[in-house]
Amino acid sequence: MVQKKEIVFIVNPRSGTHGKNEIPRIIGESIDKGAFNSQVIFTEYAGHAAEIASRCVAEKTDIAVAVGGDGTVNEVARSLVHSDTALGIVPCGSGNGLARHLSIPMDIKKAIAIINRCNIEALDYGMINSMPFFCTCGMGFDAFISQKFAEAGKRGPITYMENVLKEGLKYKPEIYEVEDDTQATRHKAFLIACANASQYGNNAYIAPKATMTDGLMDVIIMEPFTAFDAPQISIDMFNGTLDKNSKIKTFKAKRIHIHRSQPGAIHYDGDPIMTGTDIDVHIEERGIKMITNPDATEGERLPNVILNVFSDFFNNLNNVREDLEKQSKRIHAINKALLKRLTRN
Predict the structure, then answer these.
(1) Contact, 135 vs 101, CB < 8 A?
(2) What is the DSSP letter of 223?
(3) Coil, strand, or helix at residue 199?
């Protein structure tokens, strides 16, 4: 007789945009009772998920499942690194970046079906200064927006979009000195992101070629751009072709050191924190066990609402630009005709 695995579902009732009252019932109906002894625990305060996950490690629980968004996943995962307790994910947040990278379904029952299959892999994670990250970290505009998003009264793609559109044109790029094992370079950049996984969440692919099994992070340097460049950058991000954009420089590294002129925000998996002028980022190879989707396809894409919002906005922006260009050509033609008449007289 096969011994059942012990599994604990750690539910953050405050993450994402929907209530979690039905989750214990759904788990009870969906989990494979022949394979698992399951327990559901709701978090009660900030940091509680990490405490529960640490207890799972101490008690040699086989799997700890984060039920929530990227913040909850990060909190649970950082307590599981370099242990035998595997991380499972039931995505219930606003962005769900790591779950989407791993092709974990957004539907709760389907996500639990992946857990029932119990395909466990050892994957990489990253460290930015002393903070673990499992999806992305960064500084510059994305950290700035993470702050705005954290301060917002409501969460979700629309709130994210409101903050991006409201604050984006006011944000000033910074000067960064970036050093890896081979060279030191200096950049004026809109943002610098370090990606262990491919996306921020909501299928916004900041590092479309990132993988969690190569012992390296993808470093993305986004150079300053104009309002006319923004549509293509956004389209490339959602199409998974950002690495081909002329405003983007990318390279892979195991560790980097970054120096900037003044202290400011950084983020780890979307959670912002203030830090100093020097930032160290590195990858811990195969440092965490995770339940993954055995049927996942490299480069798989899932539909998402934020793509539609971006597309509508930038289609409108492009229409305005085309109208302006037509008006400009018309005005130029009129001026040219007037100049001809004046020179004749």
Answers:
(1) yes
(2) -
(3) coil
